[in-house]
Amino acid sequence: MDLELDDSLTSTEELPASQPQRASPSLTSLDESISILDLPSEVLCIVLGYLPASELPHVKLVCWQLYDVVESYSTLWRNASTAGLWPSDRQSILLLRRLASDNNVQALIKLAFAYIYKDVHSDD
């Protein structure tokens, strides 16, 4: 059983010079108005999850949408890295407490050790 191919489908005729042939859209052809804020909140949460915990309070100050994402998704705080963060000043203590309130294990452990060794004052 032989299949006949339509000549229009198998033509290798090149396009005129005024119409360049493109294999796939490139990044330069995307609309310039696309922003990270156009992403769904769930995706923003994943992207923000790559930031260290110390940056999350700063992200909240950028705009209301990022504020909402940072404050609304407890998984962002629960999974945030506390590398390089120790409860040595008031700001870091407050940040670690915020992380601990969302069950961030690293923050809970650091605060526990700090309280045991009296590195954190009870009035902070």
Summarize the structure.
The protein is mainly alpha-helical.
Please describe what this structure looks like:
The protein is an all-alpha fold. The protein has seven helices and no strands. Helix 6 packs across helix 7. It starts with 6 loop residues before the first helix and ends in an 8-residue tail after the last helix. Residues 8-12 have low confidence and may be disordered.
Describe how the helices and strands are arranged.
Blueprint: H1 7-10, H2 41-48, H3 56-59, H4 64-72, H5 74-78, H6 90-101, H7 105-116
Helix pairs in contact: 2-4, 6-7
List the main descriptive attributes of the protein structure presented here.
124 residues
Q: Flag low-confidence runs.
A: 8-12
Beta-strand segment tally: 0
Oligomer: single chain
Structural class of the helices, strands and pairings?
mainly alpha
Major sheet details: none
Number of helices: 7
Radius of gyration of CA atoms, rounded to a whole number: 26 Å
- β-strand percent reads under 5%
Query: What share of the residues lie within helices?
Result: 40-55%
